[in-house]
Write a structure and sequence with these properties.
The chain is α+β, with helices and mostly antiparallel strands. The chain has one domain. Helices cover about 25% and strands about 20% of the residues. Strands 1, 2, 3, 4, 5, 6, 7, 8, 11 and 16 form a ten-stranded mixed beta sheet that branches. A two-stranded antiparallel sheet has the order 9-10. It is globular and about 85 Å long.
Length: about 375
């Protein structure tokens, strides 16, 4: 089910990526639904993922908000030591909880890449080569995420990327590899896969594209069953095996959206499309609009970055050097039962597991305020 042979465009323009997914599920050219047609296991599974957005809580980021996602991704941890940058990423991961057990968020990938180019970043094409002169036909125009809570583990989130087809208008591709992470300090309770051929190395850094980032709390999993997922992975090729968006962008968005000056408008479309002899309306959704001018984006990113650092998070039990009885650096320490060095008389203290940060700033759960509106208007 490669992108070129798996998706067929719809005759009408669809307002959202979620609508394209639903329309595809009823397209007989992709999945036969007539009398006597027998669906294969793979067709049933793929169709189920397409239809899942129908019951999801749906949010569409406008162009300005889509551009700002790039600023969030790059602005939360651009400077400082690796330890500080990892601290920012890990805080964002733990704050990346869902507003609903099944949520769908989509954005303008074209606007995201445009912002990347505006800031001087190099655009890389599907073949892994620089593509600074990219045009609309060269890349998906929309990218979205099917976000769902794991059915057995409340602390685990699974994110499946969906992107618009480059070859077929108004069609979408559900990515065969999904990101999965915990929203606490527990390691993943499910089996993860290597994104590329297993060479024994830790590939978790590919989630964030941050050299030195390693974690057992996030990783990759197959979206579908082994047969369908691996067939799609092989047909995509090595450069498209990784989803277009990094975990850093998604975690940054989920962990900060409550702190951003946005307006969320509820949209009830009046148009629709014909499928199997019935007229089906396009999906209800909420449009998220950023209300801050672009000239103030840098200041806003700095603000939300500082909030992430202060928010409450769990800290594991650990040893800390006692500043009142410092250890001598050149000493070959010999500790007694009270963790006092018998040679330099320096001391270590055991710090119990505790919560750090301002709890009033929250472990974000994202209860969105929705207002009524009548109108609808690789990562580098």
């Amino acid at each position: 089910m490669a992108q070129g042979r798996a998706v067929i465009g719809m005759s009408k323009d669809v307002p959202t990526l979620a609508d394209a997914m639903i329309a595809m599920a009823f397209n007989k050219s992709i999945i036969p639904l007539g009398t006597g047609d027998r669906l294969s296991k793979n067709q049933i599974e793929y169709r189920r993922h397409l239809l899942s957005v129908g019951s999801a809580r749906k949010f569409v980021l406008d162009d300005a908000m889509s551009k700002f996602v790039f600023d969030i991704e790059r602005g939360l941890w651009p400077k400082g030591s690796l330890r500080k940058r990892i601290f920012g990423v890990e805080n964002a991961r733990m704050l990346s909880r869902l507003p609903h057990a099944l949520t769908f968020i989509e954005m303008s990938y074209w606007a995201f890449l445009t912002r990347a180019k505006e800031t001087g970043c190099k655009i890389v094409g599907p073949d892994g080569k620089p593509n600074d002169r990219f045009e609309r036909g060269d890349t998906p125009t929309k990218v979205g995420w099917i976000l769902r809570q794991h059915p057995r583990f409340d602390n685990v989130v699974i994110s499946t990327e969906v992107r618009s087809s480059v070859l077929m208008p108004n069609a979408a591709l559900v990515h065969p590899v999904s990101m999965v992470w915990t929203v606490d300090n527990n390691r993943l309770p499910i089996e993860i896969i290597q994104l590329y051929d297993d060479d024994g190395s830790d590939q978790s850094w590919i989630l964030t594209m941050m050299d030195g980032y390693k974690t057992d709390k996030a990783g990759w999993t197959l979206t579908f069953g082994d047969e369908l997922s691996m067939d799609m992975v092989e047909s995509l090729g090595p450069y498209e095996r990784k989803p277009s968006m990094t975990a850093t962008a998604l975690w940054g968005l989920l962990s900060t959206i409550n702190d951003l000056p946005v307006v969320i408008e509820h949209v009830e479309p009046s148009r629709g499309f014909m499928a199997r002899g019935n007229y089906r309306k396009f999906l209800k959704h909420s449009v998220v609009r950023l209300t801050v001018p672009e000239t103030r984006w840098r200041k806003l990113v700095t603000k939300v970055a500082s909030l992430i650092k202060r928010r409450a998070h769990q800290v594991r039990g650990h040893w800390r050097n006692d500043w009142r009885h410092p250890l001598t650096a050149a000493c070959e320490h010999v500790y007694n039962g009270q963790m006092v060095c018998e040679k330099c008389r320096g001391r270590k203290l055991w710090i119990d597991e505790h919560q750090r940060g301002d709890a009033s700033l929250g472990f974000v759960t994202h209860d969105y305020a929705v207002s009524k509106s009548s109108g609808y208007p690789q990562t580098p």
